[in-house]
Design goal:
heterodimer, A: alpha/beta, Rossmann fold, 17 strands, disordered C terminus, B: mainly alpha, ABC transporter involved in vitamin B12 uptake, BtuC
């Protein structure tokens, strides 16, 4: 990692509470951020992702070890120098009041302007460039409070960009956004890193997106060392699987996505064709069945029949045969047939998998 | 494209700024002219350029009472409004005002101690002597009171990370100080309570030229210093984390703003008594009129608006043509609150600025 713009060596992060007591969050962290690369920091809730980001951004001091930017220790930086090296975007949505988008992005010029905050031509140029880079130039005259969440996040990224830092650190920049907006922001960040040669580090809960878009992933496990590598390397080494084990989901290496771990309900036979087959399979798996083919009389069996473009589902269960016009009804009947499973545990499972943003677990 | 839109906004602001400045000048001249004795506007203008007035009494009224009063109102209005603006931005809270740190409560305590205790302690002629020694004594007491509170707040603010904690502590501190005042009041005789209460009504008319020799330089100096906080205040709009990431030295800035506000508020409270409402309302009015939270616009316009409203409040308090004078604090709140409430409701800026 010779060419890393930001490096951390033997870093211990955490908080100093009163009277010199230390609350250690993690220690022995060694990392590097390379220019032109997008790095995603992922890990379960509460492992200290935000603390790590805040420490790297110089917002709080490390408990031990050091952080260097371009081979200079950041504890030696003046606040203004640090601001010219690292820009941030935080999770919390700020209400900046009645500011135009231009004025908000202009705040990023803070470390460059004189006491009065008066913009020089090169400052206006930088604001213009930053807005253009995130594709928000047409928003310039709008009031920040009128923006949608996605637009606002873009503008906040532009503000960090206007600071012209070597490194941009974003704490869950996609947390409030819907899926298309999340993808948009991720791709925007990736392009920014590539085109402007900056190092971009973001934390996210969006594992799927991180695996698809990141150049490097920093995996922050609850215990043990932080690991870094290309997403694919971490999959192959099994590190990803280890980090998220026992949390209600399993990482499926074959499909490259996370599966929700469910209580097993036994085997079910499925017959049919086309999209109806694919989605019926998913519904059955969602219910905890292992789907097979075959002709055994002692197993429940579902047949998807499509007549005149309209599908129906035939369920054969303990000799009885029923027909349904939707998957919802089919699943409901199956559930009724196997009452008596433990509802409390299933609830717990759901809660945990919720941590990992179930919304994005599609196999796409 | 952006440049043109920015310029358009700025072009809109210039006439408004000129109108405000005109209003300030008009209010200043009217304040000189109107009162229990009305001095004709023409004479006022003549005297302002240094000519002798038609009647000698007009000259006396003008130089001994009206001019000091108008200058005090102009500076006090600006000082309180700017203090309020700084506190609202620093604490990111729409209800913050100059009194939020307990500074004016400290001044009140100082005055209460002098008026209620020192007088009771044997200085028999104290109340009668309120003329010269009394005024200066009150001034000194209020200054010491607010300075003490300022020191406590500064000490606390150095140790505290969260600005919200500081806000709550400041408010609690204010309550505690006010409780001490109540206790003092409880054990005092009615004339002294009366003297204390009349101080709390507030007035711009208590400053003589010799007191203005202190008041004018102090307030002017700190009003000028305030203009240097426009950039840090803008950075603080995004909260302290962002401000720090943009290279702001947050703790130093915090102390700087607190000292600045405390001196302005403390001085005004010492000379004029605790004047309610201006400090909270004027920044909101200014945001509404200029449609921005940018302190490069807000700092000068808030000062301008504050001065104008203070002068108008003073004119109303004098009840022109009558011998009666209304309590200034009552006027600022009673007449000002509905007007400003209307402006804010119409523009709905409060939600946009501080919601969430």
């Amino acid at each position: 990692m010779r060419d890393a713009v930001l490096e951390a060596k033997n870093l211990s992060i955490g908080y100093l509470s009163g009277k010199g007591r230390r609350k250690l969050v993690a220690e022995g962290i060694c990392l590097g951020l390379n220019p032109g690369e997008t790095t995603c920091l992922i890990g379960p809730n509460g492992v200290g992702k935000s603390t790590l980001l805040r420490t790297l951004a110089g917002l709080q001091p490390p408990l031990d070890g050091n952080i260097t930017i371009e081979n200079r220790d950041i504890s030696a930086f003046q606040p203004r120098e640090l601001a010219q090296s690292v820009g941030i975007v935080l999770t919390e949505q700020v209400n900046v009041g009645m500011l135009s988008v231009f004025s908000l992005v202009e705040l990023g010029r803070h470390p460059y302007t004189a006491w009065s905050g008066k913009l020089q031509p090169q400052d206006i140029e930088a604001v213009h460039w930053a807005l253009e880079a995130v594709g928000a130039l047409e928003l310039a005259a709008r009031n920040v409070s009128e923006l949608s969440d996605g637009e606002r996040q873009k503008v906040m990224i532009a503000r960090a960009l206007a600071q012209e830092p070597h490194v941009i650190i974003l704490d869950e920049p996609t947390a409030f956004l819907d899926l298309p907006r999340r993808v948009e922001i991720m791709i925007l960040l990736q392009n920014l890193a590539r085109e402007t040669g900056r190092a971009i580090l973001l934390s996210t809960h969006d594992l799927d997106l991180a695996l698809r878009c990141a150049d490097v992933i920093w995996l922050f496990p609850p215990e043990g060392k932080l690991e870094s590598g290309a997403p694919e390397d971490l999959v192959l080494s099994g590190a990803l699987e280890r980090t998220f084990r026992n949390r209600g989901i399993v990482f499926d290496r074959t499909h490259g996505s996370f599966l929700i771990q469910r209580e097993k309900r036994g085997l079910i036979e499925l017959e049919g064709a086309g999209f109806e087959l694919v989605w019926s399979r998913r519904a059955l798996e969602r219910e905890g069945y292992e789907v097979t083919r075959g002709k055994r009389m002692d197993r429940p069996k579902v047949r998807v029949v499509t007549r005149g473009g309209i599908p129906s589902w035939q369920l054969t269960l303990e000799g009885e045969s029923l027909t349904f016009s939707s998957i919802y009804e089919l699943v409901k009947a199956l559930r009724k047939s196997t009452t008596g499973h433990k509802p409390s545990r299933r609830k717990g499972d759901k809660g945990r998998s919720g941590d990992l943003d179930t919304g994005s677990q599609s196999r796409g | 494209m952006i440049r043109s839109s920015e310029i358009k906004i700025k072009r809109l602001r210039l006439p408004l700024l000129l109108i405000l400045f005109g209003a300030l000048v008009a209010a200043f001249i009217l304040d000189l002219s109107l009162g229990s004795v009305n001095v004709p506007l023409l004479s006022v203008l003549e005297m302002l350029v240094g000519r002798e007035p038609e009647k000698a009494t007009w000259g006396k009224i003008f130089f001994l009472f009206r001019l000091p009063k108008a200058i005090t109102a102009t500076l006090a209005g600006a000082a309180l409004s700017i203090s309020g603006l700084e506190m609202q931005t620093l604490f990111r809270n729409p209800l913050a005002g100059p009194s939020v740190l307990g500074i004016s409560a400290g001044a009140s305590l100082g005055v209460a101690v002098v008026v209620l205790l020192a007088a009771a302690g044997g200085a028999a002629g104290f109340l009668e002597g309120l003329g010269l020694f009394g005024d200066l004594g009150i001034l000194l007491a209020a200054s010491i009171g607010s300075a003490l509170v300022l020191m406590v707040i500064l000490m606390v603010s150095r140790r505290i990370q969260s600005i919200m904690t500081l806000l709550i502590l400041g408010i609690l501190f204010g309550y505690a100080v006010n409780a001490l005042v109540s206790t003092l009041l409880h054990f005092s005789i009615s004339e002294r309570i009366q003297a204390y209460i009349s101080w709390t009504f507030g007035s711009f008319g208590n400053c003589t030229w010799s007191q203005l020799a202190v008041f004018i330089p102090v307030v002017t100096l700190f009003l000028i210093i305030t203009q240097f906080t426009r950039k840090p205040l803008n950075a603080l709009l995004l909260g302290e984390s962002y401000a720090r990431s943009m290279g702001l030295r947050v703790k130093e800035t915090r102390s700087f703003i607190i000292i600045n506000t405390a001196v302005l508020t403390g001085t005004v409270t010492a000379f004029c008594g605790p004047i309610a409402f201006l400090g909270i309302a004027i920044p909101h009015l200014s945001r509404s009129l200029f449609n921005t939270s940018d302190h490069r616009v807000l700092l000068p316009t808030t000062a301008l608006l504050g001065s104008t409203v203070a002068l108008i409040a003073d004119i109303i308090a004098q009840l022109p043509g009558s011998q009666t004078v209304l309590p200034l604090s009552a006027v600022t709140a009673l007449f000002g609150a509905p007007v400003i409430a209307w402006v804010i409701l119409k523009r709905r800026n409060l939600r946009e600025t501080f919601a969430g």
